[in-house]
Design brief:
Radius of gyration: 27 Å
Distance between the termini: 51 Å
Largest sheet: 8 strands, mixed
Shape: elongated
Number of domains: 3
CATH topology of the largest domain: Spore Coat Polysaccharide Biosynthesis Protein SpsA, Chain A
Strand content: 25-35%
CATH architecture of the largest domain: Alpha-Beta Complex
CATH superfamily of the largest domain: Spore Coat Polysaccharide Biosynthesis Protein SpsA, Chain A
Length: 477
């Protein structure tokens, strides 16, 4: 059997949710709905799957790769317009001859499997009799559909098909309301088409926790709740019921979430009370009142500037301490000097949350071993950074110093936070992550968390954790 999945992924009803991804990549629980759809197709016996893409096709291609994880062959086609997808596949369908085709939407998941002995012409319908977005048909029926057939008008050409009423309605991510409803049904197990989460464990009835999730002892979790990978839940937080938190998120102290979804790579600040909301990085979407609220950079900056006097005093003390360490280590530096050479890296001076024309750079100093000399330990190679701290160009704790070109390539929301931070010798990744080669998402979420907590007291906490924390393996800075 062959499946044809229409994954054009553009729907005005999604509003801000559609800015960063097409609708088939919106998640139900632990993975995008498109993954659930392909799981379902494979279970029905499909071995070849053709996907029709349009909006942000590169994201879908990157996520699905070659289909090896499902044991199916994936073929990608691009539609010229989201509303008329079939023109991209019909020339091929005419050559499929006697094949049976499972045709459906990449953001619709049927409410049941196919019947045991399906007829060759079958429409899968919801309990109310409406089309679920999926049909079984001969390839000749697909080839006979007009090329200007819209997604919504497909059922009009299937009037001679037998209707199969599924016991449950389909799941969809074509609107914010459907996205919320699909996740609510996932939490309540009110669906037979979803594969149970493979990245999470049900630690209590209705409470799913994924790997590398950290929950403060004072936090309260009330099921049903799903919490994704690499997520931190802060002090005094109350989560649930009916909450989905996707991967790489931070819920800061004393916040409350109920009947809400937090999309991956999102940060929920201190003391927020979110009910009937979707949090998607820089957007809060109220699903009850249908309001979309953008979170501006000014809000973040004003939060970070509250402790300016304390910051200046702390930075002055940092420079004095760095100068004292250089003086104390002077004999060692003199002994090492013949075996090393200075390496200079041009990095952006932080903070730089102002027009790019005013950006400045500085030379970060490092040591490298001379040819033929012994390789120096990393901490010795980093010692010249103390001079950058004395000059006020860097700090003991901060985000990784980056060249200007690298900063320009950061995603917009990450770049905004990065420009408001400060460059440090010891980075959040060196303290919080056990991997010497952290992933893109891990670096992003630790930078976001640090930017929100960047203040003297937190820097002291980071230093304490880095040098005196237990079970800490060496990390890359």
């Amino acid at each position: 059997m062959r499946a044809v999945i229409i994954a054009t992924g553009q729907h005005p009803q999604l509003g801000a949710l559609e800015q960063d991804r097409p609708s088939p990549l919106l998640r139900i629980g632990d993975k995008p709905i498109l993954f659930h759809v392909i799981d379902w197709c494979a279970q029905q016996g499909a071995t070849q799957i053709d996907l029709i893409l349009h909006y942000r096709p590169e994201l879908i291609r990157a996520k699905l790769e070659d289909g090896g994880r499902w044991g199916v062959e994936l073929n990608f086609h691009t539609a010229k317009a989201a509303d008329w997808p079939l023109g991209a596949i019909q020339p091929l369908a005419r050559r499929w001859q006697d094949e049976t085709v499972l045709l459906g939407m990449g953001d619709h998941l049927p409410g049941a499997a196919l019947p045991e002995h399906p007829t060759p012409k079958l429409m899968l319908c919801d309990p109310d009799g409406k089309w679920s977005g999926w049909s079984l048909m001969p390839a000749s029926s697909l080839a006979a559909l007009p090329s200007d057939t819209t997604r919504e008008s497909i059922p009009e050409y299937l009037s001679d098909f037998k209707r199969y009423i599924c016991p449950l309605p389909h799941l969809s991510t074509q609107s914010t309301e459907q996205f919320v409803s699909a996740n609510a049904r996932f939490l309540s197990h009110n669906t037979s088409s979803l594969v149970p989460p493979t990245t999470a464990k049900e630690v209590e009835t209705g409470i799913w926790l994924s790997t590398n999730t950290v929950i403060h002892p004072t936090a309260e979790v009330i099921g049903p709740v799903f919490i994704g990978r690499n997520t931190q839940i802060g002090e005094g937080v109350r989560i649930g019921p009916h909450v989905v938190i996707e991967n790489n998120c931070i819920i800061d102290s004393k916040s409350r979430l109920q009947d809400s979804i937090v999309c991956q790579n999102s940060y929920v600040g201190e003391g927020l009370d979110l009910v009937n909301n979707i949090v998607d990085r820089r957007w809060i979407i109220n699903t009850k009142d249908r309001l979309e609220i953008p979170l501006t950079d000014d809000v973040i900056v004003s939060e970070l500037l509250r402790f300016s006097f304390r910051r200046q005093l702390f930075h002055f003390i940092e420079r004095i301490v760095a100068l004292g360490l250089l003086t104390l280590l002077a004999p060692l530096l003199v002994c090492i000097a013949p075996f090393v050479q200075i390496q200079r890296r041009i990095c952006l001076s932080l903070p730089a949350n102002f027009p790019e024309a005013r950006w400045k750079s500085f030379e970060r100093l490092l040591w490298t071993s001379r040819a033929g000399a012994l390789r120096l330990p990393e901490w010795i190679q980093q010692l010249p950074t103390l001079w950058n701290i004395v000059r006020g160009e860097m700090h003991f704790v901060g985000v990784k110093p980056r060249p200007i070109e690298e900063v320009r390539k950061l995603p917009t929301d990450w770049r905004s936070l990065y420009l408001g931070s400060k460059a440090g010798w010891i980075t959040p990744q060196a303290v919080e992550l056990n991997s010497p080669h952290p992933s893109f998402d891990e670096i992003y979420v630790t930078d976001v968390y640090y930017a929100a907590h960047d203040r003297p007291r937190y820097d002291l906490h980071m230093l304490w954790k880095y040098f005196l924390g237990s079970d800490r393996e060496p990390r890359s800075r």
